[in-house]
């Protein structure tokens, strides 16, 4: 297998893009990434998306977007893995280039959610859960996460206040990200006073949906010339794992087994340990998921996730910076595109282009994208060459 590098990135601002279509959003990100890479053409396009067929009444996203960006006749198709669709598209492109089947590939994540009524989107998001054993019983996706959070607090003795640093940190970092949906800092009091959605999850625990697209261009490392405009970032670890789609079907609902497996595989590929990671773009769709991801990925012992936040270790100058460009909480969570935003942000950090939240001397970054409530988890590790 060939070594693969990311040489181009592109992204749109996350928001309510009433004036832009699904293809236009994807097109802006793809064309910006190709331009950033200094290329005129690529061999293949892989699209990460969760709900276009229902929310936008559009399937066939491969041909739909390829034609729009001038890649008619190229290999192109959609990859779906619920909220981890973006990282799944990235991994698909990576394997295509690494295998030698493709020389240049674009992976794009795109989602357009705000054109549809809120109730419809809530129903669409619920398809990431088990239709028979969870959704049909009336459990919403937020409710599933609230059950996990409540049990976690009970088992390990944490209070609601202890989760505040996750949201406070995300919003503080989002201020500096021009592509973030929310660019306003919040206080601990604002976190605690936020309206309750599904106790103990309130508005400040939950990430906002939105419209957006992000893309990367990949090529074999061996084919990069000395005149590359940007620092070269290579992919040194990539792994995916699954678990029961229904929370009650897992051996331990307070442990993200798929995160543990995928991160360990990625560490082994890279020849690294958690202590070698300079920043971690985790999937903070809900505050509880931030804590669980930190634990399962080996950054802190079981049941101690919130302590990293309370000690200030998740900030850009901390031991393990997370949500460095706002995370899902402030940057936003256009579900099928989220994993790609995470990877674009890791590349920004490793290029030392993350103005305002740059992690000092960042050389190795990790991104972890979660599908469902932990049923499909994809981990990537990238390194500045």
Question: Nutshell version of this structure?
Answer:
By secondary structure, the chain is of the alpha/beta class. It is built from 13 helices and eleven strands. Strands 3-2-4-7-1-8-11-10-9 form a nine-stranded mixed sheet, with helices on both faces.
Structure commentary:
With 385 residues, the protein is of the alpha/beta class. The protein has 2 domains: 129 residues, Thiolase/Chalcone synthase (Peroxisomal Thiolase, Chain A, domain 1, 3-Layer(aba) Sandwich); 231 residues, Thiolase/Chalcone synthase (Peroxisomal Thiolase, Chain A, domain 1). The protein has 13 helices and 11 strands. The strands form 2 sheets. A 9-stranded mixed β-sheet has the order 3-2-4-7-1-8-11-10-9, with helices on both faces. Strands 5-6 form a two-stranded antiparallel sheet. A hairpin with a 4-residue loop joins strand 10 and strand 11. Helix 1 packs across helix 3 and helix 4 crosses helix 13. The longest helix is centred in the C-terminal third of the chain and has 17 residues. The chain is globular, with a radius of gyration of 19 Å. The model has no long low-confidence stretch (mean pLDDT 97).
